[in-house]
Amino acid sequence: MINAKKIEEIAKQVTDAIPPSLKNLANDLEEKTKTVLQRKLSQLDVVSREEFDVQTQVLIKTREKIAELEAKMAELEAIVRSAE
C-alpha cells in the first residue's frame, strides 16, 4: 500500500533540492502564463455566470409564457371552430 506521508516527504525533498533560480523561473512562467490567459480570456465574447443565470431564468419564464399563450390560442381556435 502507498504511504501518503512517505510520498509527501519525497515530494518535499525533491522540492527542496530544486535550485532557487529554477523555482523563480517556474514562478515567473506561471505568472506570465496567467497574465496571457487572463488577457486572452478577456478578449473572448463571453458572459459572466451571473448574467448566464439571469438569462436562464428569463428563458424559463419566456417558455412558460409561450406555453400559456399556446394553450389560450388552442382554446380560441376551438371556440371559433365550434361557432362555425
Features:
84 residues; mainly alpha; 3 helices; 0% strand
Walkthrough of the structure:
The structure is a single chain. With 84 residues, this protein is an all-alpha fold. The protein folds into two domains: 1-45; 47-84. 87% of the residues lie in helices and 0% in strands. The protein contains three helices and no strands. It has helices at residues 4-17, 20-43, 49-83. It is elongated, with a radius of gyration of 30 Å. The termini are far apart. The model has no long low-confidence stretch (mean pLDDT 89).
Binned, the helix content reads: over 70%
Query: How would you characterize the largest beta sheet?
Result: none
Which sequence of SSEs, written as H and E, runs from N to C? HHH
Q: Tell me the span between the first and last alpha carbons.
A: 83 Å
Structural class: mainly alpha
Question: How would you summarize the topology of this molecule?
Answer:
Layout: H1 4-17, H2 20-43, H3 49-83
